[in-house]
Amino acid sequence: MKLPIVAYGDPVLKKVCVDIEETYPDLQQLIANMFETMNNASGVGLAAPQVGLPIRLFIVDTKADEGEEVFKKVFINAQILEESGEPWAFNEGCLSIPEVREDIMRKPNILISYYDENWKLHEEKVSGFAARVIQHEYDHIEGKLFTDKLSLLRKQLLKSKLDAIAKGNVRTDYKMRYPRQNKKR
């Protein structure tokens, strides 16, 4: 089932998410719904807060973009243990912030600990585009958005676009859920 993607301005996107247990209700169905939602929206990653749930769950499917191998995984209760390498800029977007793309600096290598969908614990080194997508989605479960990494000036220049998204004045090819109250940012 395709889920509505939460739009910029919804408080759930700014919450630090909580760990979940193996007994989380309907977890496998939630994961399947998140993959369907992400694929329908042509995304490469999706975090639980983006579907309205403040839990430490995100998915990644790079679909062999950027000339790299396919990287498709589920991350539960993830912790980035280390980021390394020279930061590099890449033009990022976000399904919760449609029609906004900005160059964001991130380190190219990470070491991450997480449970997969079968509750097997992993500690893995990831590099390149997949590492970037993981960092972007990890930021979501930490209550951060890619726009938080922008300079104050750049944020000011984007303010009207971001306010329009929060009010539902944006067109997407996928279903979105907009904040009930539009608070000043």
From TrEMBL:
GO terms for biological process: translation. Binds 1 Fe(2+) ion. It comes from the Bacteria. It catalyses: N-terminal N-formyl-L-methionyl-[peptide] + H2O = N-terminal L-methionyl-[peptide] + formate. The keyword Metal-binding applies. InterPro entries: Peptide_deformylase, Peptide_deformylase_sf. Its EC number is 3.5.1.88. It is an enzyme of class 3 (hydrolase). Keywords: Hydrolase, Iron, Metal-binding, Protein biosynthesis. Fe cation binds at C94, H136, H140. CDD domains: Pep_deformylase. SUPFAM superfamilies: Peptide deformylase. GO terms for molecular function: metal ion binding; peptide deformylase activity. Its cofactor is Fe(2+). The active site is at E137. Pfam families: Pep_deformylase. NCBIfam families: pept_deformyl, PRK00150.1-3. Removes the formyl group from the N-terminal Met of newly synthesized proteins. Requires at least a dipeptide for an efficient rate of reaction. N-terminal L-methionine is a prerequisite for activity but the enzyme has broad specificity at other positions. Belongs to the polypeptide deformylase family. This is Peptide deformylase. It comes from Pedobacter insulae.
